[in-house]
Write a structure and sequence with these properties.
heterodimer, A: 419 residues, mainly alpha, three-stranded antiparallel sheet, 17 helices, 3 strands, B: 322 residues, MetI-like fold, two-stranded antiparallel sheet, Phosphate transport system permease protein (chain B), MetI-like (chain B), cell inner membrane (chain B)
């Protein structure tokens, strides 16, 4: 104590310094965490932006009766017609290898795209027409500037020759970039320029629906029982411990449960939203139960007592008076649980929802992919263009998560009641 | 009212009473059934894991699984030969899991704790209202996104940084996966510790401040010691999350079962191996597939123990000050 009195300034200074230092540690920790968040989300958005636009290349196709019979359009070989038109655009290309490279500027779907355009507008027939086609992924990367044209030829997928073709096309105003609607209307594809997220999105929606319809009623009823009816005995306590522990069990273990029980024992169809939804519902159950119990607990006892005093039975008091008051809180918890389920990947891998699914699923017993699984699959793909696709799919997933959480916040704010 | 009518009314009343009683009973029954689902799920998990694991241990002795140091389940040479089914020593997976979780905890503990301390002791209510939800976003981002980011951005970054200082960093290094996993569990530590620190009674703070100590001295010498059990509980819970985390390690840590403590080398984890064993082509009943369930059982037991301990600590501690 004497030293404190004799040398007040030095000690005070060091104590003050340590105080400031401590405070800045706290600020630094928060700043670092948030900086990481901004860095991660920012870099993904920057990368995914490219996949939201796509390149188109215009090719003049001769649609006269020589090439297409107006009475029997389907009989035409659209692929060879397209290839012929490309050769006519670049007459100097003669060798087989170069020709193949030339066709590679457009996506492999070029024939179908021509057919669809003609069927949509038969008046095109009769003469040469300048039509737009989807560029291939490699051409798109060059046209969008993602791949540097000045890079050494060995370090990029497109040769100088192919880039010179693209530049010719650019000079004749035959290239165009526009919003990538295919990304939202196509299913998965081996070709990056044709791959879309619709199949995965539908799969996720179906899976989440199953998850909701299974977990919501069970969770709400379980919460009501535990909060309103359960006697304070060992069984209730055991159930409670169980629920708390289930909430912390690694998600992959639920996937193993789904594989062993639902697939191998009960023989439910593999890779389907039905099984995926069931597994996810087991995972979201504890989340919803815990949230529902908290909001039931927040309803004051006076409501119950008033209902019981008016002659309502315990079931009536609960279902007519307490549960409706707790519903906004329960819904908020449910949405948060669903948002978690939407982002969950590992258990879906266990039950085989990793297959390549190009078709958009229409029922819960058809094989389907899910959005996070699609992200996982694309992240593994070797083509450079899939990096952009993955980032774009992540953006879509994050947008859905943000919307769901905003909905939860809105519900909480709107219906929040303080008793 | 005629006697006849009265009798009918009484009868109606009785049936109505009976009916409502039956309804009450049925409803209560349904409610009980729904809450039993939680137990059913736990029982289901335990039985399915145990059953398949026992079948695995018929083929591979448990001692080899727990203490063997070589893991190469892919090298099945001949299906009819048990010994040719590869090596199933889980030690490299356990050390790999621990290494990555340790790195994650090294990142998350200081960041999460200091965030919690700042938010609960220094920050104004306004800052708190803004920063807390922002930190929670980190917990809401799906792990597959973290995995993608770790594999695509962080791992190459570490590799090139390592090259520039002359270190050979594997492109699937434990460090990349651990760092990102650490960021993922920051909000878990910060929000749980925040609760614990807030539960320390104001009287302790007032007493310490009244004796002339500064805010930071109060925190270090009074609040943290009082909150230590709860903080330990939250750290255990975070560790259990890190051990059970799957997607980050699947995408960023790879499958090389190296027995090493070097964070710059590639390691694999229990969860990453489960995914590798059970996706793609699989013959059921082979030791390879069954080993995934044994790994799952190991994972379940370890995380369960951590969870039970931490929940007990946190709950007990909460009651103490309530």
């Amino acid at each position: 104590m004497t030293s404190m009195l004799t040398t007040p300034t030095r000690l005070r200074k060091s104590r003050e310094a340590s105080e400031t230092r401590f405070k800045w540690f706290g600020r630094g920790a928060i700043a670092l965490s948030l900086a990481f968040l901004v860095f991660m989300v920012g870099s993904i958005i920057l990368q995914g932006k490219g996949a939201l636009t796509t390149s188109e290349i215009a090719v003049t196709v001769d649609l006269s009766a020589d090439n297409i019979d107006p009475n029997d359009i389907e009989a035409t070989s659209f692929d060879s017609l397209m290839k012929k038109s490309l050769r006519e655009t670049f007459p100097e290309v003669t060798s087989r290898g170069d020709k193949r490279k030339l066709y590679g500027l457009l996506s492999v779907d070029l024939g179908f795209e021509l057919r669809d355009q003609i069927i949509a507008d038969p008046s095109l027939l009769g003469g040469p027409q300048k039509l737009w086609f989807t560029a291939s992924d490699d051409a798109d990367l060059v046209l969008s500037g993602t791949v540097d044209r000045n890079l050494d030829e060995e370090n990029r997928r497109m040769s100088d020759l192919e880039i010179s073709w693209l530049e010719t096309l650019e000079q004749s105003d035959s290239t165009n970039r526009e919003f990538n609607t295919k990304f939202f209307t196509n299913g998965d594809s081996r070709e990056p320029e044709l791959a879309g997220i619709l199949s995965a999105l539908m799969g996720s929606i179906l899976t989440l629906s199953v998850c909701f319809f299974v977990s919501f009623p069970i969770a709400i009823l379980a919460a009501i029982y535990l909060e309103e009816f359960a006697p304070k005995n060992r069984l209730s306590q055991f159930i409670e411990v169980n629920i708390n522990n289930l909430a912390a069990v690694p998600s992959i273990v639920f996937g193993l449960l789904g594989l062993a029980m639902l697939l191998n024992t009960f023989g439910l169809p593999r890779s389907t939203p039905l099984v995926g939804g069931l597994v996810l519902s087991l995972m979201t159950l504890p989340t919803i139960i815990i949230a529902a119990r908290a909001s039931l607990r927040a309803v004051p006892p006076s409501i119950r007592e008033a209902a019981l005093g008016m002659g309502a039975s315990p079931v009536q008091a609960t279902f007519h008076h307490v549960a409706p008051l707790a519903l906004p809180g329960i819904l908020t918890g449910t949405i948060v649980g669903m948002a978690q389920a939407l982002g969950e990947t590992a258990p879906l891998l266990m039950i085989g929802m990793v297959a390549f699914i190009a078709d958009v699923p229409s029922s819960i017993v058809e094989p389907a992919a899910a959005l996070p699984v699609q992200i996982f699959l694309w992240a593994d793909a070797s083509e450079r263009a899939f990096v952009e696709k993955t980032s774009a799919a992540i953006i879509v997933l994050l947008v859905f998560l943000v919307l769901m959480n905003l909905m939860a916040i809105y519900l909480r704010k709107k219906f929040e009641k303080r008793f | 009212m005629s006697p006849e009518n009265a009798a009918t009314a009484a009868k109606l009343n009785i049936t109505a009473g009976n009916r409502s009683k039956t309804v009450e009973m049925i409803v209560t029954g349904v409610l009980i059934a729904c809450s039993l689902v939680a137990i059913l799920v736990t029982v289901g998990i335990v039985f399915s894991l145990l059953f398949e694991s026992l079948r695995f241990f018929e083929r591979v002795p448990m001692s080899e699984f727990l203490f063997g140091t070589k893991w190469s389940p892919q090298t099945a040479l001949r299906a009819d030969q048990v010994a040719a089914d590869g090596a199933f020593g889980a030690v490299p997976l356990i050390t790999g899991t621990l290494l990555i979780s340790f790195i994650a905890m090294c990142v998350a503990t200081p960041l999460g704790l200091f965030s919690a301390i700042y938010l609960s002791e220094y920050a104004s209510k306004r800052t708190r209202d803004w920063v807390k939800p922002l930190l929670e976003i980190l917990a809401g981002i799906p792990t597959v996104v973290y995995g993608f980011f770790a594999a695509l951005v962080v791992a190459p970054m570490l590799r090139s940084t390592g090259e520039s200082v002359g270190l050979n960093v594997s492109s699937e290094s434990a460090l990349a996966a651990g760092l990102i996993m650490g960021v993922m569990i920051i909000p878990l530590i910060s929000s749980l510790s925040d609760d614990v620190i807030n539960a320390v009674p104001q009287s302790l703070r007032d007493a310490s401040l009244g004796l002339g100590s500064t805010d930071s001295e109060t925190i270090r010498n009074v609040i943290l010691p009082a909150a230590i059990p709860g903080i330990a509980g939250s750290l255990l819970l975070a560790a259990s999350r890190a051990i059970g985390e799957t997607m980050i390690v699947v995408m960023a840590a790879g499958l090389a079962a190296n027995l090493t403590a070097n964070p710059l080398e590639a390691v694999t984890t229990i969860t990453a191996q489960i995914v590798a064993l059970l996706t793609g082509d699989q013959e059921f009943d082979s030791a390879k597939t069954l080993s995934a369930f044994a790994l799952g059982l190991l994972l379940f037991i370890v995380t369960l123990i951590l969870n039970v301990i931490s929940l007990k600590i946190v709950n007990k501690y909460r009651e103490q000050y309530d």
